[in-house]
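Progress note, sequence design subtask.
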């Protein structure tokens, strides 16, 4: 313990660092810290809205919004098997016509083959088949918005050659 105290006092050499301390003090005295100046506040005049026909009211919509009837999806019906599969995982691979009824052949990712007709449903958004041709299946999906109301979205499922 005594040896440690003797060694610590031997390291105290304040006379050799006196010039360094004076230099640091001199730099602190002569150097100014740069403080950013505040930007000048620009005073603007208040805008007063005059309700005449020359200006558009900024608080009213600029476009006339077409009032469409509110669509409700039939959620009480039993879902068909292809409604549990996303539409982008289904492929139209062909058609079959029996008498005057056109059927479309649909294949899923697991290579299961399904036969659908007009009025059947496809995809997770209640896509109802409205028309089947030899090149495509036309369907209308019911897409919910953030308010819980539904809008129609027309989709075509094209034949994969």
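Output:
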């Amino acid at each position: 313990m005594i040896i440690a105290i003797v060694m610590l006092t031997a390291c105290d050499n304040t006379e050799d660092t006196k010039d360094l301390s004076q230099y640091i003090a001199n730099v602190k005295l002569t150097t100014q810290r740069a403080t950013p100046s505040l930007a000048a506040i620009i005073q603007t005049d208040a805008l007063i809205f005059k309700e005449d026909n020359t200006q558009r009211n900024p608080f009213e919509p600029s476009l006339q919004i077409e009032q469409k009837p509110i669509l409700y999806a039939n959620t009480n019906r039993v879902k068909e098997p292809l409604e549990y599969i996303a539409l982008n995982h289904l492929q139209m691979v062909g058609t079959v016509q029996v008498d005057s009824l056109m059927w479309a052949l649909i294949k899923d990712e697991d290579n299961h083959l399904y036969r659908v007709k007009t009025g059947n449903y496809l995809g997770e958004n209640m896509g109802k088949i409205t028309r089947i041709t030899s090149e495509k299946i036309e369907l209308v999906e019911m897409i919910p918005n953030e308010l819980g109301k539904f809008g129609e979205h027309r989709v075509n499922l094209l034949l994969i050659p």
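The mean pLDDT is 81. Work on this subtask will continue into the next period as scheduled.
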